Amino acid sequence: MYPHFHTPTERVIAYTAGLIDGEGSVCAQGNRYQINVTQSVVNDGEDLCRWFAKIWGLGTVYGFDKNMPNMQWAWHVAQARAVEHVLITCMPDLRVKRRQAVKALAWVQAHIAEGRRLAWTPGEERWLLDHWDAPDAELAASLGRSQHAIRHHRNAKRPDAPDRRGVANRRRVAKPPQS
Length: 179
Hints:
Layout: H1 10-23, E1 24-29, E2 32-40, H2 45-56, E3 60-64, E4 72-77, H3 80-90, H4 98-113, H5 122-130, H6 136-143, H7 147-157
Antiparallel strand pairs: 1-2, 2-4, 3-4
């Protein structure tokens, strides 16, 4: 797998798979797959969802009420490589959602293999910064990205890089009048 993703202990993986099976979903939304684990406040859902995000080092946590008496919380994983990581890691322990997970994993891996542009995960960002002096080819192999993508992302991350709007759109500062 990718070195920038944290892999929890077997116990945490089994627990995650159990909650995905019981309280979660592996589903398509729009043109991408995502993993959700939803818990209510009654079950201390916020703490559990934040714990998942912390222990896995990926995903987002949000709350919603859906006009229900108890607040609902979700741990949401939607970036292609993050979905792939969680599914591959949890696959041996999935029972109920296994068929959906196999289908999602095949789709995500085909999507990645097509060379489509994928959002950079926070783990990839950290890996790039931590290994800044490594050659593009080495980083590309480690991160599963093209050398072009590495080069492009390095250029965007340089401290002296122009903003995305380009030089022409920067605020012009009037020169002081000469006396």
